[in-house]
Amino acid sequence: MKPIYLDYNATTPIDPAVSEAMFPYLRTHFGNPSSTHIYGTTAHEAVDQARRNVADLLGAKREAIVFTSGGTEASNHAIKGVVFAKLRGWSGRWAKAAHIITSSIEHPATVQPCEFLKRLGCTITVVPVDRQGLVDPDAVRKAITRGTTLISIMHANNEVGTIQPIREIARIARERGVLVHTDAAQSVGKVEVNVDDLGVDLLSVAGHKLHAPKGVGVLYVREGVTLEPLLHGAGHEGDRRAGTENVPYLVGLGTACTLARKSLPQATQRLQQLRDRLWERLRAGIGERVVLNGHPTLRLPNTLNVNFVGCVGADLLQATPEIAASTGSACHEGQVNQSPVLCAMGVPPELGKGAVRLSVGRFTTEDEIDRAAEVLISRAGKR
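^ that's the sequence the OP posted. Answer follows.
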């Protein structure tokens, strides 16, 4: 039997309806969307429809959707694009004048662009999180200065699933005239994500987190926000991203967004039921030897990050080939390294070394949950 897949936060399988929608644009409708003949106009119409589908899921205007190669490019474009757009008016003083606020549990797609800008002279303020992985909006408020250019805090954490108070953070930012970007790669498709409800100016989406292919994503850009393009060339995506559109993948992403919109909020409820079923069985089987990481309620409905006390997460998963999941610790030359997210949350190393992330998804079944719990209880109990 194939291993039980409990790593949906890493990537999702392409939904059959998505691959079916993509196929004609891999074979028959191969035209360049910029061409004016029938081959081009067919492709152009497909891209337009995909843009509408994404916009509908996010509650956004069609013109606010910029297609990218994935969530990493989207976040890079948001963070660097805002800062670089200031260059024109700052006569070379832009780097020292730019100030970015972010959190201590961000994905590398946010951390690394901030580090890059720091090397150029930007100031980066990293606000902490509490033991449950939550950012305090008041800490963000206190971090804002006259020179603050952007606040970039993820909507939901990819490891522990904690959902951040983005709406309140955006309200604080708006009062001070500061732009807000949120990485919503993990939340889109699992919970309702509406850009107006959140109040953000920029939002990143990764297609492969919601049953579209890898290598396609979206940056939402609120009307009136100016970004410097990352890629310069022909005027695609409203002059915001150069490069001929990847039509089959955009069609796939648009279809995935339509499926997600139609399945919410029922999908949220189903994912939460599966997640809680797994947690309840683990608790019933090994009791206090399994400890939750992340917020008990303000958490993605599909994400269960737990410490198996007395175990090393990587060793446990290696001994459990029946399950495909992720670990919050890594062994290297006899040393156990805890993930930066768990470190930022203040998880004690003796607990965090046993961390395992179990994330369920659209195709997870109750039978798989029960079998996974049984195997984990058996293996963790022997260690």
